[in-house]
Amino acid sequence: MARNDVIEVNNGEGWRSGDKKIVGLLTFSHAVQHFYAAGLALTYPFVISAFHVSYSSLGILLAVSGVVGGLLQGAAGLARRFSARFLLSGQNVSLGVVTFLAAFSPGFLIYGLLRFIGALVLWPQHPVGSAYLSETFPKKRGTVLSWHTTGGTLGTLLVPIATTAVIANFGWRTALVALSIPMALGGLVLIGNLPLEASRTKGSDAHTQASRQPGEPSMFSQIVKNKAAVLVIIASTVSAAGRGLGILTAFVPIYLKNGAHLSTVTVGLVYTVLVGGGVVGPLIAGWLSDKIGRKGVLMAAYLGGALSFVLFVQKYSSPWLLALVSLFVGMLAYSESPLIQSLFSDTIGPSQARAAFGIFFAIAYGVGALWFALIGFIIDKYGFQVAFYIMGLSFVVSAVLISPKFIKSQSHPQINPH
Known about the structure:
Elements: H1 19-41, H2 44-51, H3 55-72, H4 84-102, H5 108-121, H6 125-136, H7 141-170, H8 172-193, H9 205-210, H10 219-224, H11 227-239, H12 244-259, H13 264-292, H14 294-312, H15 319-333, H16 336-348, H17 353-366, H18 370-382, H19 384-401
């Protein structure tokens, strides 16, 4: 039975009883969501073989699913009548059901349809989860959003080990059945434990702010008039070319295998070190941004990440040197996401945070997903080195966009008076 408690906004510096549990639940939910993408990816080679389809067919399916799923995040504001508990638990249970059904697909058409449906139902985690945390912990946005991002990274890091073992012993269909279980259970955990957000309380200041009044401009028009918010969205869309949970997840293993010509075991080692850096880096960067300022830490991550991309595609005499570089790539590139989300939240304040984050993710992640096609084309035409240089350039451009030259003053959390 779901509890009916409502979490209050934490306007202080310390942690109250139950606060860390809330952050843990949202982090866990993000990990469960990433079980889906990370685990499913391991079945693709077997799906291609079983259904006799081309890599191009699979690529088109993933591209369409990624763009549509990303753009759907813009619907977060329209779903504000539903609680985060309902949306996120429904997301995880639905992913479990879709994954279970995919295990019994008679052909690629049904498998592809279920994969597309999966992209449709996983949209709430980023805009709804980020809005929930940003509204509840306005003075700890960097820290809590970093934990949220780290949850996704942990899901990406942990699931492949178990999924690969099941595939090796029982086949890809059984692996999908096994994968569906923790996702469904994850949804049930949220139903029973995640409190309602403060904006669900009628009569509260947060509820009043979250409800659009007659004649009030839409959130989209408010953001368009907010120069800082627009620049942050543009910067995030540009830097999607090197985003950790995105482009790097897709192209780093391919580069290590086909570009650096490493053995399968070494590819696994270097990639694991990179993703491990993606677990540690955001936690440090998020905490630091709450202490010394958001933009400075984000600019350092952008510029350091750009340099790490260049170093990553150089030739090394030892794979251990490459692994060391990959550690810094992961720490810096994966830090971009929670830091840019925190900076965006600082620019918009508490009003209609879910709607605002929906717009942010629809553009930065939906439109940003087009980088998959562009980076793939660049690799085919000019090679891996040029592609990673362009990833680095995208980070430099984003650093300029959020610099004091364009965003004049340091944004600070705007505290909800509730």
